[in-house]
Amino acid sequence: MLKDEMKKIRNLRNKLHKSIQKNGLNSEETRRISDEIDILINEYYNSIKKTEYPKDSEMIFYYEKSYEALKNITQQLERFPTVREWNNYARENNYLCHISLEYISKLDWNYLQIKVEKELNLKI
């Protein structure tokens, strides 16, 4: 079962790379494939019944990188970005979208906002 899911993820990843080359990073097709991959990855981790991502997972690396970028853009804007603002920024700079950040952190966007603002000592 897990091997099938990993194979689907790999196939979608290859499809995603081809779509990026053919259609560009911001095309509807590329976004659709990216969303499919997000769903499959989340289903995969749910199916192995882990309470959190393994510490050596690439997803943790990308989450931490994206989370730092989220804090940086919050400082630059002097406010927490909207979902649309973040997703545009993330897409342009190869960070995780808001859905992936929510899933990995197990926090919805509003709670991520509170966490970031507390860490940055911003007014809430």
Task: Explain this structure.
With 124 residues, this protein is mainly alpha-helical. 74% of the residues lie in helices and 0% in strands. α3 (58-77) crosses α5. The longest helix has 22 residues, at 2-23. The mean pLDDT is 86.
Q: Any low-confidence stretches, pLDDT <50, length ≥5?
A: none
Biggest beta sheet attributes = none
What is the residue-averaged pLDDT? 86
* Category from helices, strands and their pairing: mainly alpha
Assembly of the depicted chains: single chain
Counting DSSP E segments of at least 2 residues, the number of strands comes to 0
Q: Measure the end-to-end span.
A: 45 Å
Strand-and-helix sequence, N→C? HHHHHH
Rough shape? globular
Strand content: under 5%
How many separate helices? Answer: 6
Helix proportion: over 70%
Q: What would you report as the Rg, rounded to the nearest angstrom?
A: 15 Å
Primary descriptors:
124 residues, mainly alpha, 6 helices
Please provide a brief summary of the model:
The protein has 124 residues and is an all-alpha fold. The protein contains six helices and no strands. The mean pLDDT is 86.
What is the topology?
Blueprint: H1 2-23, H2 28-47, H3 58-77, H4 83-93, H5 98-105, H6 109-119
